[in-house]
Write a structure and sequence with these properties.
The chain is α/β, with parallel strands linked by helices. The chain has helices spanning 3-15, 19-34, 52-65, 79-96, 101-105, 125-132, 150-160, 176-186, 222-231, 241-246, and strands at residues 41-43, 46-48, 69-73, 115-120, 140-144, 166-170, 195-198, 236-238, 255-258. The protein is 43% helix and 15% strand. Strand 1 (41-43) and strand 2 form a beta hairpin. The chain binds S-adenosylmethionine.
Length: 261
């Protein structure tokens, strides 16, 4: 680790002891949930229902892992798909720079094997069209259906069998039962050194009144599913450093790193 990186690691660790900073971040998070802050951002023109901090974390992970396949549950308007696809396109461009002049002459950015699969139970036609018309669309495959339907799981597993470095992001139905079933279906596809990112684990830490119109809430959410899954899956560990760095994140205990086969 170089000196700069050592200083970053030290600063991130110290965040944990800074009560004022942690309290301010928590207050900002709660207030910003009430104003639907996470609905205000776009990625290359498509709305992403995300906090900017988590989007940066995903970009850092994609650069670090260099996946050839990203599997995402929960498409909505497509912003997270476009974020992933655009990072895969950048990985392709960076690799193309090392090609010989002859190879570079036949390099076609549309031919990439790298791909994002997005699964959603309800892909609205206007969202589908906007994603299909987007310049990043050649790297995106959308599948409509429930992410825990066995036919959908089989389809995704078949596609994944042709890939080596796989990253998974779960952001669909946020109930305990659903996320646990998603973890059981897709986490095993994550390659060693890569991550399964489980969004909206923060629900466990939020006031119950905030979810009165939702089937999920404290005690029934992605974080409780992660905790249950990890009891029998020591091949994953929670990366605490990412949320400690972000401070504002929807995924505390949700960045799961695969450490062994
Ligand atoms: C929070 S949004 C996804 C946001 C998106 N990942 C982004 O960053 O912009 C949740 C999505 O999950 C989808 N969804 C809900 N239940 C589902 C299920 N059983 N299977 C797959 N998708 C589901 C919804 O239709 C909705 O589009």
């Amino acid at each position: 680790m170089n000196k700069f990186q050592e200083e970053v690691t030290k600063r991130i660790k110290e965040n944990n002891n800074n009560k004022l900073l942690l309290d301010s971040a928590n207050r900002f998070f709660t207030e910003s949930c009430l104003t639907k802050y996470s609905y205000n951002f776009t990625v290359l023109g498509r709305p992403a229902i995300q906090y900017p901090q988590d989007m940066i974390a995903i970009k850092e992970l994609i650069w670090q892992i260099k996946p050839d396949l990203i599997i995402e549950t929960g498409i909505a308007h497509g912003g997270s798909l476009i974020l992933s696809a655009s990072m895969l396109a950048l990985l392709d461009i960076c690799e193309a720079i090392t090609l010989s002049d002859d190879e570079a002459n036949v390099f076609n950015p549309k031919d990439s094997k790298r791909k994002v699969i997005g699964i959603d139970i309800d892909i609205r036609s206007h969202n589908r069209k906007a994603i299909e018309d987007h310049p990043m669309s050649s790297r995106i495959q959308m599948i409509q259906g429930s992410s825990i339907d066995h036919l959908i799981i089989e389809k995704v597993k078949n596609i994944a069998s042709g890939y080596k470095r796989i990253l998974v992001c779960l952001d669909s139905n946020h109930s305990h039962e659903h996320v646990l079933a998603e973890l059981q279906a897709y986490a095993q596809l994550v390659s060693v050194g890569s991550y399964c990112v489980v969004f909206d684990t923060i629900i466990e830490d939020m006031p119950i009144e905030m979810f009165s119109d939702r089937p999920w809430g404290p005690n029934n959410n992605p974080k409780t599913a992660v905790w249950e899954y990890l009891k029998t899956h020591p091949e994953f560990e929670i990366d605490k450093q990412i949320p400690n760095k972000l401070l504002i994140t929807v995924a505390p205990d949700g960045y799961l790193k695969r450490i062994t086969k």
